[in-house]
Amino acid sequence: MTEAGVDAVPKLGQAHNALFTQVYEAIKRGILSGRFKAGDRLLEERLAEEFGVSRNPIREAFRLLTAEGLVEVINRRGVYIRFMDPRQSREVVEIRAILEGHNARLVARRGDPDLLDRAAGILGQGEAAIARGEVAALRGLNEEFHRTLALAGENEVLQDLLGLLRLRSALLFAKAEPEVQSESWMEHAHILQAILAGNEEAAAGAATAHVLNAGARAERFRDAERVDVTEAPAR
């Protein structure tokens, strides 16, 4: 047995690809969890040490993340988690709202009962977390809820698109206040209720409204930050 618990020793190319994939997925999880936020610098040396790999898998992960629009390379400064300007943020919200609405329609039409049970369980976990005042837990549960509904839509192309858009949305929504996260979470119940009732129109409408509302809340928060900076006394 190897340290990774794999019986067969992988070929060199397979091992390299596995390392690259692990680093890539770990950085994506960091974005979704809020560990990495827009504007954060990603240091090759620090990540290589953390993951116990050479710098090559880190660089390859950076290249793919750059192609996906999640990080950007700033000459002579390094690699940073991408910061979306208002226009880019609006575009992400608009297209995700459309696709989430269509996915909810598909789930209401043909959703796997087991996946819907899983979504209901995740919804309950989030409500319990809110009751305990553990709002920080909602970030991870939010990703689980939306990923589960994407799977239930049974459209792999749509799943891939929604996965990328959730990553970009995570950069937009990363700084949301706890009460905003709670408000957003409660909208999930409306989506799931319509899905379980088999009401395609209501499910699509609730999912679309959920994303648009989240975008509006994020924009209000962004505006408030700008006001705070503008009104801050000079030092």
Describe the secondary structure blueprint for this structure.
Layout: H1 12-33, E1 41-42, H2 44-51, H3 55-67, E2 71-74, E3 78-81, H4 86-110, H5 113-131, H6 138-152, H7 156-173, H8 178-196, H9 200-231
Antiparallel strand pairs: 1-3, 2-3
Helix pairs in contact: 1-3, 1-7, 2-3, 4-7, 4-8, 4-9, 5-6, 5-8, 6-7, 6-8, 8-9
GO molecular function, one term: DNA-binding transcription factor activity
InterPro entries: GntR_C, TF_FadR/GntR_C, Tscrpt_reg_HTH_GntR, WH-like_DNA-bd_sf, WH_DNA-bd_sf
Keywords: DNA-binding, Transcription, Transcription regulation
Structural summary, described in words:
This is GntR family transcriptional regulator. Residues 17-84 form the HTH gntR-type domain. Pfam families: FCD, GntR. By secondary structure, this protein is mostly helical. 73% of the residues lie in helices and 4% in strands. The protein has two domains: 14-81, Winged helix-like DNA-binding domain superfamily/Winged helix DNA-binding domain (Arc Repressor Mutant, subunit A), CATH 1.10.10; 86-226, GntR ligand-binding domain-like (Four Helix Bundle (Hemerythrin (Met), subunit A), Up-down Bundle), CATH 1.20.120. The chain is built from nine helices and three strands, in the order αβααββαααααα. A three-stranded antiparallel beta sheet has the order 1-3-2. The radius of gyration is 20 Å and the shape is globular.
Identify the notable features of this structure and list them briefly.
disordered N terminus, 73% helix, Arc Repressor Mutant, subunit A, globular, 2 domains, three-stranded antiparallel sheet, 235 residues, Four Helix Bundle (Hemerythrin (Met), subunit A), transcription, disordered C terminus, GntR_C, mainly alpha, TF_FadR/GntR_C, DNA-binding transcription factor activity, 3 strands
